[in-house]
Amino acid sequence: MAASSAVPLLLRAAAASCHRLLSASRVAANRSPSRFFHASAPARLSSEDKVTVHFITRDGDKLTAQGKVGDSLLDVVVDNNLDIDGFGACEGTLACSTCHLIFEDHIFEKLDAITDEELDMLDLAYGLTETSRLGCQICLQKSMNNMVVRVPETVADVRQSIDIGKNP
Asked: Which residues are in the 2Fe-2S ferredoxin-type domain (predicted)?
């Protein structure tokens, strides 16, 4: 690998590591140690604080999960261990487009404004539509309860192109 192409990969890896460390420290700060292992600990959220999301996968399967208001759609997929291949490869650092989702029109119209950085990453996404956004940039709101989002048929993931070239 040429040195010039290794630099962006190293920067992405460093950013992902920082994101993991920050996420872990936030989790530790929000929970007491006894909550991790105590079976009778009260639920953190009531059903009123949760938002249900229905993901339509590449295969047409419907996966339903819940997240709390303020969680990103990437958080929902990861926290619920949803089986969506390659989803969120950069862990929400806006360094890929693997969390590309397609929204229904009535939901898309209510989403927060898109940033230039997200637009740049969406330019790399396959199957881009007028209602495409990155799941890592969309935070749940109560008004999104029971929304349906579609995972595109194909995902742009650098790991796939590397694996394709390997000999069995």
From this structure: 51-155
